[in-house]
Amino acid sequence: MVSQARKSELLFSGSDWNFAKLARVYDEIEALGLEKLGLDIYPVQMEVISSEQMLDAYSSVGMPLMYRHWSFGKRFLYDELLYRKGARGLAHELVINSSPCIVYLMEENTMALQALVIAHAALGHNHFFKNNHLFRQWTDAGGILSYLDFAKSYIARCEERHGLTAVEAILDSAHALMEQGVFRYRRPPKLSSEQQREGLRERLEYEERSFNDLLRTLPPSPGKSKPEATDEILAERKKSLKLPEENLLYFLEKNSLVLEPWQREIIRIVRIIAQYFYPQQQTQVMNEGCATFVHYTLMNTLFDRCRISEGAMLEILRNHSNAVFQPAYDDPRYSRINPYALGLDMMQDIQRISTAPTAEDRDWFPDIAGRGDWRDTLLDAWANHRDESFVRQYLSPTLIRKWRLFMLADSADEPHYEVASIHNERGYAKIRSALAQSYDVGASRPDIQVIDVDLLGDRRLRLQHTVKNGIMLEGASRDATLRHIRNLWGYEVSMVALDAETGAMLSERSTKEI
Amino acid sequence: MPIFIDRRLNPKDKSLGNRQRFLRRAREELKRSIRDKVRAGGIAELDREHVVPIPRKGTGEPTFGDDKESGRRQHILPGNRTFSSGDLIPKPGGGGGYGSAAGTTESEDDFRFVLSREEVLDLFFEDLELPDLVKLNLKQVLSFKPRRAGFAASGAPTNINVGRTMRNSHGRRIALRRPKQAELDAIARQIAELEAKPASALVRERIAALREALDRLERRRKRIAYVDPVDIRFNRFDPQPLPNANAVMFCLMDVSGSMGEREKDLAKRFFVLLHLFLTRRYERTDIVFIRHTHLAKEVDEHTFFYHTESGGTVVSTALEEMHRIIEQRYPVAEWNIYAAQASDGDNFAGDSERCIELLDRKLMRLCQYFAYVEIIDERESHIFGATENGTSLWRAYNAVDGKWPNFQMRRIAAPADIYPVFRQLFARQPDLRKSA
To answer: Least CB-CB distance to B18: which of A23, A68, A327?
Structure first.
């Protein structure tokens, strides 16, 4: 190893970059990643952009193509404001879960940073996107860009045909329900090709034109009394509408009585984009951890082999440590647990447990402790876990001690917090479980479902909010969101809050009162 | 080898459209915020610069979110040094969560829009307009102002443009090769020299030739004038129509004993608003202040609002005074005439009929718009809010109201009423037409 290192020369020198250097560095890093970490990646497409373009990309939820909406403009102005004031730096990179995997490089970056970005994004994130089961099952990397292209032009066409205001109203309402617009347990269908979409839309429009059973509003014939709403009929009705339904956007798209076909299509677009981002929200720690682990390992290896200079390595390390900085809870800089730091630490911990376990590790992780094949363990974890299960499975007592993690129990009606557990023998399991729980997107979001609607009666849409741990919805934004649902549904919308444990009704709110 | 694409030369500002959409939306919020401010802070506020913060969440994007003030939670935090299980930590002030430490809130800056005085007023008056303004302007273009518009080949002698004329003549003289005086002089000198010499046949011949040349040049000089009529250029003037954008506002106020400080204050606020509005809309705005008790007098602004004087009430005197001033100083052809009258509605018995007559016969034909604002007691507002009943003046004016569409009347009981009423009075009224 040492003799080989002596022989080899630097990959690059100086801080300027050019395309030849980038290509050389990429090839080297890719070969190293495949050889040393066994990575498996989508082909890479690297795009060099300026900082302004980075701001643009930032504000349209990181996608290269996005339909137009004022909220993206707001994000842009806000990001730009912070950037101009120096309150926030720009990300050095942006990577898109698509095939080929698109990596944005900023032209302002130095060569050392570009190398870091390549290792981090083009290999780390890329591997994660391609192999993690959530992304494999739930997102269609090959189809997303063409879908976004379609969405953008479709919405632009709607704006031309129906006016900005009309489109904006639908988008505003749909955006308000984005978090309630994903299937959590059912896998969404694969994104269809342009042709299929066209066919689908035509069919939709045809259905709309032709008779719609739901719209039958003839008064009952005089001789016949109105059928009683027996349990049987109720059950039948729920079954025909596939209730309860947790995906509010989906329900509205399919069943709303007032929406035009183009409005349904827009809701569908918002829903599909929400669904596309759902896995990303569940895998922040893992995704960033994976990318950080990969760049840290690869950069150090390159340095050990004398392929990068000490100066470049220092710059890389400085950026690396900025990214994984984790202030303590009482530090003014603290905002939350840094997913880069937690992910990297856990993955390095797995490496340590595999190669140099303590007795405690052998107790806690009998499967992997001392087996030495940390690489396979990591590849397996990257492929098969999301944040919640990853923390639940791999957060070790060593790490809990190192981070000095502790748990506060916070009850709104108490004047104080209680320290429920700290990093000791009795606390490890509890802390691990609570931290895992906090990464469970499904559990930490309000659980709201459509439970019933009487299509033949007053057409009131009835929602149910299952209240866990007594956490209610914030009043003002709840009312505003209900109004948005009403816009899409066209008739009264009411929501009851039921306690998850006791089943007691905590509150009821209808758009009639708002 | 990966694919590289250089996107740096791609168009920037991909989000320009998004930003425009956002600003258009923010404008609505700005408008609302300005209105609220003015309503709360008084009309004087209106005439200043404003900084209007729009919270980042301001242009709302609501979602179903947890109420931070309810329920039971667990927070996992790093960096414990001092606590052990079971310790109790008091929550910081008033249960606002563990501040940022709980990882739930991020401090967020607001957008701040700094609006100049003009922008504030523009937002404030955006959809207000004085009725009938456009129509009058289109109908009567009354004065013209001459404006230089190049040169003409014909015109009055006073308008000759000497510079341009001489330039033309100079060019023509060069083009037609008009002999110069110097050439003639030179030949004359030669002739004189030859004549001084002893005469010989050769000399005589030379002299004859020179004389002939001189003669030819002189004839040519006569043919080609120094200044020819074709050279002459006149300044050309175009008459330009001047828009008739003058407005005069008559402020009529009852200052009899029944008008207390509160009533005057309300009236003043209404007039201030009207004045701001008129200065905004017209190039030139005059205000005439007329106060009346049983006698009416034109006064200056300060006296109008602050002078204390008392007496009986004869409203018609103010109307007569107004009519007199219009006749004297404001020819209807040139001025848009507006009037706002504020009163508590008390009037001398029998005078109200005279008021009707004055308005009906004279003033309403002259006025573009006449607004009557009756200031009533707050306790009366719920009684009279919507009824036709009221003071003698109110009942009398009701008759005028029905007859003249450019007459409007409203009641005001509190400062908060002023702006809505003002808006009602001056909202765009497409079908408002001056009859006869």
So the answer is: A68
- Burial class of residue B260 in the structure, from the number of CB atoms within 10 Å of its CB (0-12 exposed, 13-18 middle, 19+ buried): exposed
Burial class (CB in 10 A: 0-12, 13-18, 19+), A335: middle
Q: Which residues of A touch B78 (CB under 8 A)?
A: 326, 328-329, 337, 403-405
Is residue B75 classed as helix, strand or coil in its secondary structure? strand
How do residues B195-231 score in pLDDT, each as one tens digit?
888 878 888 888 899 999 999 999 998 888 888 888 9
Q: Which of B25, B75, B83 sits opposite A410 (nearest CB)?
A: B75
Nearest C-alpha neighbor of A228 from the set A408, A404, A456: A456
Residues 6+ apart with CB under 8 A from A498: A464, A465, A466, A467, A504, A505, A506
pLDDT above 90 (res A58): no
The two beta strands, A416-421 and A406-411, are antiparallel
CB–CB contact B22 A408 (8 Å): no
Query: Could you tell me what percent of chain B has a pLDDT over 90?
Result: 9
pLDDT of A436 strictly over 90 = yes
Whether B315 and B357 have beta carbons less than 8 Å apart is answered as no
Q: Does residue B107 sit in helix, strand or coil?
A: coil
Chain A residue at shortest CA distance from B95:
A415
Hunting for tokens 């667990």 — which residue is that? B74
Query: Domain check: are A428 and A407 in the same one?
Result: yes
Long-range contacts of A207-212 (CB under 8 A, 24+ apart): A208/A260, A208/A261
* pLDDT, position B100: 37
User: What is the pairing mode between strands A44-49 and B3-6?
Assistant: parallel
Concatenating the DSSP letter of every residue in B234-302 gives: EEEEEEEEEP--EEEEEEEEE-STT--HHHHHHHHHHHHHHHHHHHHH-SEEEEEEEEESSSEEEE-HH
Report the first-to-last Cα separation within chain B, whole angstroms. 86
Alpha carbons A189 and A275: distance in angstroms, whole number: 11
Q: Give Cα separations from A47 to A114, A118, B9 (angstroms).
A: 12, 11, 11
Size of interface A-B (CB pairs under 8 A): 264
DSSP A91: P
Do B185 and B270 sit in the same domain of this protein?
Answer: no
Helices and strands, number each (H, E), in chain A: 23, 9
pLDDT in tens, B155-205: 888 889 999 999 999 999 999 989 888 988 999 999 888 888 887 888 888
Structure tokens at A85: 């004031």
Provide the domain limits for residue A380. Answer: 337-442
pLDDT above 70 covers what percent of chain A? Answer: 88
DSSP one-letter string for A436-477: HHHT-HHHHS-EEEEEEE-TTTT--EEEEEEESTT--B-HHH
Residue A160 falls inside a structural domain:
no
Cβ within 8 Å, pair A46-B3 = yes
Taking the CA atoms of chain B, what radius of gyration do you get in angstroms?
Answer: 41
Between CA A478 and CA B66 the distance in angstroms is 9
> Min CA distance, A285 vs chain B (Å)?
15
B247: β partners: B285, B336
Residues of B in contact with A475 (CB under 8 A): 67
B90 touches chain A (CB under 8 A): yes
Its ipTM equals 0.81
Helix axes A261-282, A144-162, angle to 10 degrees: 140
Q: Are residues A473 and A435 in the same domain?
A: no
Do both B337 and B417 map to the same domain?
yes
More confident residue, B77 or B1: B77
In this predicted model, what pLDDT tens digit does every residue of A69-81 receive, in sequence order?
Answer: 888 888 888 778 7
Tell which of A442, A460, A488 closes a domain. Answer: A442
Are A73 and B18 in contact, with CB atoms under 8 Å apart? yes
Which residues are paired to B116 by β-bridges?
A: none
Distance from CA of A211 to the nearest CA of B (A): 35
Same domain, A48 and A100: yes
